[in-house]
Amino acid sequence: TCRQLNRFPVPPWRNWVLGHTGMAQSTEQGLQQVDELVRRFRGGCLWWALPWLPVLRLFHPSTLRPLLSASALGAPRTGWVSPPGEGLLLSRGQRWVRHRRLLSPAFHGDVIRGYVGVFNQSTRVLLAKWGAAASGGPVGLEVLQPLSLLTLDTLQKCIFSHESHCQEKRSEYIQAILELSSLVVRRQHRPLLHPWWLYHLSADGRRFARACDTVHAFTADVVRHRRRALGQGGHQDRPGDHQGRRRDFIDLLLLAKDEDGNTLSDEDIAAEADTFMFEGHDTTASGLAWLFYNLAGHPEHQERCRREVRELLAGRDTQDIEWEDLSQLPFTTMCIKESLRLHPPVTAVSRRCTQDVALSDGRVIPKGIICLMSIYGTHHNPELWPDPEVYNPLRFSPENTKTRCPSSFIPFSSGPRNCIGQSFAMAEMKVVAALTLSRFRLRRDPARPPPSRAPELVLRARHGLWLLLEPL
Fold first, then answer.
1. Keyword Isomerase: yes or no (predicted)?
2. Of 8, 144, 241, 358, which is least packed with CB atoms within 10 Å of its CB?
3. Is 371 annotated as a binding residue?
């Protein structure tokens, strides 16, 4: 193993005892450090996260492709970032294979088509609030927090068919989800609390347990009642119909069967629903917030998106975005993708090799090694993206995309373990962006300094993302 690892370059470290301990930070300076590593070690480097823990940090398709496409890989058990339940994100082996196969139909285009009305409905609630705040003219607002509530509102409707009105009033369940996210980030920065036995003894650990209990109780109750209704109704194809509502995520998982006719247990369904809520709201909200920030700094691109939306909606009785419209917003889609490149919501994903992985240059990643696949580093690699710090949506024009390696743009990861909800997220982002740009002009606030990026569970800004919103 040592001989194989020695073929990877090692950045300067503290000393031979400490290695790189404490040198990686979840701060603006930490991202600038990644930029420097990418410039110096274009394919990747060996990082001693602890004196006894080697980690390969990778940021080029030549090193990423074999890992992304390999089936013999699993996510390492970083228990201190675990969501409330072992869903698809952290499961491994045959459990992961079975669950992935059973969950895939729940994210089919025909299912997402039915959610577009929900995307419109939730977005209009937020835009009404912003409209009231800006009734006297342009107003400065922090956008990430309300966008998080929007995505949580949407997810509750799509997963549970539950109307919590969380954008307008406090919801115990939604507050528990938000608290879990906050507590996981706090724990990330406190290594002494990483061991579960110590964490459970702390005040934060007790708060985490209470929030988990709230989330689990809500989800278990929905699954239990829906299972009972399914058994009583006998409608094996569409359990939601007899209640006068659309099929939701819970319905689809209750009906899911593998090739042997086996179904998911109530506990499995609850774990997947909790994971979707926990992981799905912040990532989409982060992507939207940074999209609005980038468009606010490039009014020419913002105006072109607005024209595209207005031409699409011209002459209609309704101003809702429909499923068929999503493919008719090519420039808006290019802007979203370029924002996901420049500010990826998830900056890195990790894998632990369960067997040796051979690279194209003859090097081998040894079995058991943790690989930190830097999405941010890959998206900012000057070998792949000339002038990587420049926001240029034309990078994603059809002619430019045609010649680019697919593994150079991986906001949703790639390969067998890619994000199963990426089509859902992209559809929601298009609807929210189109409706927002048709109602407001976005500008950066010259009175505020540039945001200090914070790569936590998702990419945030240290003091929030503030924009000026001007009603149109």
1. no
2. 358
3. no
